[in-house]
Amino acid sequence: MLNSGSARPAAPGDKVRRGSIVDGFQYNLFLRNFPENYYPLALSQLEPFRRARGYRPRWYTVPDADTLATIPPYGAVEEQIRIAPGSWLWGMSVTVRGAAFGVADPSGVLAIQITDGSTGLKLFSDFMSAGFIWTQGWGPAPPYLWIDNSPYILSQPRPIVEPGLVNVEIADTLGPLPGWGIQQAQLVLYCMEPAIVIEEQLTNCRKPALLSGASRGIG
Amino acid sequence: MPDCRPEEQYRTPPGYYDRFFVYAYDADALVDGLDYRGLPVQVESRSDFIMRKISGGPQVTVPVGVLPGPPYGRLQFYNPDGVQVSRAPLYSDHYRSLAVIPELRYPAGSAIVFDLYAVFRASHWVGDDEGVFGVTYLSQLAFHGVKRAQGEPDDKSGYRYYEKPYTYHYQLLIDWRAYSPAGLFAGAAPPHRFYLPIDHCDFELHQIAVTVTGTGTVPAIGTLAYMMLYDQNSRGCSNAPLWMNYLETNAPDSFGNVITPPLLYRTGSQIMFDITSKCLLSIGAPDLPLNLDIDFAGVRRLPC
User: Fold this and answer.
1) Which residues between 131 and 150 in chain A have a beta carbon less than 8 angstroms from any beta carbon of chain B?
2) Can you tell me the distance from the alpha carbon of B100 to that of B102, in angstroms, rounded to the nearest whole number?
3) Going from the N-terminus, what domains does chain A have, and what CATH number goes with each?
């Protein structure tokens, strides 16, 4: 545990902040020295990203719409998303419901595969159960939900290179479960993208206001 | 890789200091079922805010699957430049305890802006002893991070020391309800203030653990109390009283809340905190009295 039993004398004016934040997720200083646990190790991989200059958080949803994706029985939803080249993918999470009932445990039902469109490399060797990145776990009492292991953190952040295309597949492997109905889901890919992309977006948004300037050769 | 070395420990920029702070948004005044766009949380005008975590999505909207059908709650956040962080609103389940990587710096005087779709406030309903149904809302979004301002951090002790773990224990009895004694419709009861004197030597507060004891019951919705924590200079650590689940290190859904950077309380100062009750006095399932064991855990700086 951090600082436990620490006997290092500190001089007045010592500017080293030994209690500074180690991770951005849990703020839990006490996780740092648990080398056998996956989560703090994965978090430590993200430490340089948290204060990275010139980057902004950017979260990509599948589907790219204000709805849940309906996964056809024994079928799959495929979507290609465009992520700004130079971005880093560091985590993901999925929320799932059964159309007929409500909360649906996707373990063993839904499976996810993500493929880097530029290199053809897959993120997982085979379709991965959505249960691993599910935002909902069963709680012991109402409201029956609590966080399980979300967001799922990659063991090492993955760079997104030109042209920044990523293929996402969400597949239904068991068909509609009795009582649950067809599965619906929203997958989120957590990235950080170069801030320059946002600057370009802002510039594009401002173009109408600059039209008069463009006519004078400014734009 | 980004412009920093992986082994490098997080440092506040030279000439600045960080102070633990949480901005909260109370959704009590919103109307269930409606969509709200451009909701702001004003950042204080004297210091920037570095946002590192968002929590409480399911407190202000319906998580996916809880009710038989949609609409389920969604949230959309904007970065300090006014650009949407996600390309479509995220369902509120994703916001139970979501890290913001990299951290976002909101300049002093700016605002944290977000959209809420399909508001549904988390609430605690019980039958009241006055024969009416009472309700208290625990609908709050929290933005965890630090305030960053120019100057020197006030975290130095005036003597050489070594650190040893130490916990200040406080037994809190909440025996007043959310509404004023005059009745349900007479407004909320005022918060009660508590003090915990720091003796012997300086104390660094690292985390707060809360355990429910005694006869009070805690519904699954969470601890029925809000806390406003103050530092040694009586400056608040949040812009409003916070639901205790956002401060507790052992709260579900939180991944462990820890006071970072730690708060220093010098000898002779006190840990001051306000408690706002969210309990109702009911006949069937009494909320009151609610006994809480609060552990203020950290390290003492023992002179050497």
Assistant:
1) 135-136, 139-147, 150
2) 6
3) 23-52 (no CATH), 54-196 (2.60.120)
